[in-house]
Structures are given as structure tokens and as C-alpha cells.
Amino acid sequence: MGTLFPVAAVLAALVVGAVMLLLLGASPAEGFAAMIDGAFGGPRELADTVNKAVPLLLVGVGITIAFRANVINIGGEGQIVLGALTATALALALPDWPAVVLLPLGLAAGLVGGAVWGAVPGALKAYFGVNEILSTIMLNIVAVQGMNYLLRGPMIDPAEIESGSRIPQTMRLPPATDLPVLVPDTRLNLGAVIAVAAAAVVYVFLWRTTYGYRIRAVGLNPFASRYAGIDVKRSTVVALTLSGALCGLAGAILVFGSESHRMVTDGSTTGFTGSAGFNGIVAALFGGLHPIGTIPASFLFGALLVGANRLQRVTQVPSALVIALNGLVVVFVVSSAIWKRRLEQRAQLEAVQTGDQAAQTSLPGDVAPAAADPPGHESDTDDG
After folding, report:
1. d(C-alpha 111, C-alpha 116), whole Å
2. Is the predicted pLDDT of residue 127 greater than 90, yes or no?
3. Number of domains the chain is built from
């Protein structure tokens, strides 16, 4: 039953969305038909859905590593930004390098940028006891302000200065950093393959390596892990570092796979990330905090995001409805995770109680009765 909770949560959110459409005078049937067509209506729509799912998958897999170590990474937005800035800076610094070298280097730079931004709250958590939720959220703010400064100053496109428009964007990145398109006449690029491969690698790491076992052990019981000789502090730092690295890789792919092939923003974090840092958390929860389960979860959530945009255009409802619908999905999915955990705890408690009752019932038959005391002899335990 627990595996059905995320699906039920999405359906519940869509039911509430249907009520909202009715209140706005739009047809829910027409709106949801447009949503399905916008996400799965053809090769281009499918490609857009997959591209939308790529950053969600990478962030979700990174979130899975952090959650398995019992730390909560809310800093995906900032880590995406840092990964994109690092990858962009490297690409602009080496414009004449061949694609076979520059593209892998750029993706690796994104990994490093996100890893550094994830390691900071990891170290603060492990060695100074700073709450990782607060530190990651605050670092998101630092990241967006740094992005705004760089894209409006040192990294701004010189053409924007000459024209006077001063749009916060970089110049066009070298063609060597363009991610190869996998399907002609679509925007589906190599980022999809990289994201799926990353999910598979993380699965092997967490469930087939000694260090992955240590991270999961720390998440299950840090005190027992410390008693067993596992360095809990180091595992915490490593988990958040790896989580940030995957978010940084998502940022590099967002830049290298974009239509404009440059980094651009509207001054907010979501203007560049599209809220992938937060939506990736929902995808991870939807996938059961498992790297492989996060693959279909990210695709489904990407379809919801792409389809919701088509719904808004067809039904002509306010764009705020799309934001509200996405928010409803987030709330219901997170709530379903809480209820699922409560049901698991209740089932475990009932299993323990059932086992105790079975043990008490079987005890008289398993233990031989004590020999009867001889007449006139008082038992040593009879103290009145």
C-alpha cells in the first residue's frame, strides 16, 4: 500500500486542480487533455518532457544520497547555480578547445562547483552542529546574489553593454560545449543519457560498495555506526558533497543543453533553475528515495510541469494556477511520504506486539512445569 501513496497524492492534487479550473470557468476535461497532449503529444513534446526531467533526476538522485545519510539538502537551487557558473566560466576561458575535451571538462567543472557548495553545509553540520536545512537555504540566497553580480558584471555579454539593454546573460558559449542532439528536429540532448547513467552509478555506489553501505548505516543509526567504527562526520560531509555534485552537474547540463547556449537569468534563482532544486526533492520522494525509482518519478513530474504550461495556454487560466497546481503536487507528495512512514511504523509496532503475544502464548507449552513440592515443604519463594 505504501508504494501507491505517491500516485494517490498526484491524483488528489489533480482533483483539487480540477475544482480550481471549474471555479475559474474552465473545463477540467479540456485542461487535462491539453496537459496530456503537451507532455506526450508527439516527438517534440516527449523530448521537452525528458529535457524537463533531466535536472529533476540529477537533483533527485543527489537528494537521495543526502537523505540516505539522514541529512536534508534544501540547497539544490544554489548548487545548480554554482555548477552552471563554474561550467560557464570554464567554457568562456577555453573557447578554442575541441569538443572532445572541452565538453567533458565543462561537465566536470559543474560537478566540482556543486560539490563545493554542498560540502560547505556538510562541514558545518558535521563539525559545528549547524542545521543543514538553514545553511543550505541561506547558501541558495548567496548563490543567486553571486549569479546576479557575475551576469550583470564580469560575465555579462559585451554586446549587451554596447546595446545598452544590459540583459543579465553571458555571451554565446563555444559550440564545442553544445550537448549533442539525440533526435533530429527536437531538443532532446545527451543530458538525458548522462542523467540516467548517473542514477545507475549512484545505485551501485549506495548498494554495492562499502562506502555506500557506510552512508546508509549512518542514516539508519549514527550512534551504532560510530560504535562500529564508521566516521559519521566524514560520511555526512561526503553525502552532502556528492549530493551537491549531482546538482551542479544538472546546472552544467542546463547551460550546455539550452536553446540559447548561454547562461541567462531574470534575477531570481528560479529564473535559471526552473525550481528544479525543489522539484527534484519531490521527484526523489516520489521515487521512494531510490536512484532507480527516481528515474520514472522524474519523468512523470517533468510531464506534469510541461503539460501544465500547455493547460494554461489552452484554457487561458491565470499562470498562477499552474504554480498552484505544482505546489499542490508538492504538498500532497510530501504528505504522502509522512503517512507512508507512519503506516510503516505502525506495522512494525503491530508486528512486535504480535510477536510478544505469540511468545507469551507458547511459553507454557515450551517450558516444563516445575516439580510439585513435597507435602509439608514450603517453597523458598513463598514469602507471603
Report:
1. 9
2. yes
3. 1
